[in-house]
Specification:
Blueprint (H helix, E strand, L loop, with lengths): L1 E5 L5 E6 L4 E5 L3 E4 L3 E6 L4 H11 L5 E6 L4 E6 L4 E7 L6 E3 L4 E4 L3 E7 L3 H6 L5 E7 L2 E7 L2 E6 L4 E4 L4 E5 L3 E6 L3 H6 L5 E6 L2 E6 L3 H11 L6
Antiparallel strand pairs: 1-2, 2-7, 3-6, 3-10, 4-7, 5-6, 8-13, 9-12, 9-16, 10-13, 11-12, 14-19, 15-18, 16-19, 17-18
Amino acid sequence: MQYRLIGDTMPAVEVILNRGEGMYTQSGGMAWMTEGIEMTTSTRGGIGKGLIRSMFTGESMFMAQYTATRDNALVAFSATVAGEIIPIDLAQHQGMILQKGAFLCATPGVQLEVTLTKRFSAGFFGGEGFVLQQAVGNGLLFIEIDGDRVEKDLAPGEVLYVDTGNVVAFDSSVSYDIEMIRGAKNIFFGGEGLFNTRLTGPGKVILQTQNLKEYAGRILSMMPRNNS
C-alpha cells in the first residue's frame, strides 16, 4: 500500500491499494476513487459497539470498508475542515488516544475502540465527555487536525497544560486529567474557562492550533438575530 498527502488548506490523502488491500473510514468519509474498489459497510464490532461509538465519540455508527479488487486501485479521503492530515504508524505506538472527530481513516489492522477517561473529573469537566477513542493494533492510522499541528514529546513526569479543544491525540502512556484554573480573578475575568487539560508524560502529544468550537462560537456570535 502506498499513499500521498495532497493539498494545503483542505488536504486529502490518496491511497493506492493492491488487490486485497483495504481502508476503512466512517460513513461518508470517502472523497473519490477509481474503478477496482469495492465498498462494504458494517459496524466493525457489532451493533453494540457501533451504537456506543455513535453516541459517545461523535463518529458514525457504521464504517465503510474499501477493498481493492485489482492492483493500483485508488481511493481518497479528505479533511472536513481546513487543517492537516497526519499519518501514524501504530506499530511504533502502543495505542493512541484520539479526540472526538480526529479519526479520518485507517487500514483494517487498526481497531478503533471507545475508552473511558482515567479519572471522573477529566470526563465531567473536560468538554469531551466521558469517552474518548483509542486506536490500537498494527497498521496505518490517518487523523485530521484543525489548523496547524504542534507535536510534543513529553519526558516521564513532564506536564503540559492545554485547552481541551487544542488536544488532538496522545500516546496511551500519557496520563490525562483536568485541573481547575487557580485564582478567582483568573476564573472570572481570564476568559479561558474554568479548566485546563493536564497531560503528563512519557509519550507523544499532538496538538492543533485551531479550536474549532471557539471558532464556531465566534462566527455564531456575528450572525444576525431575528428579534421579532
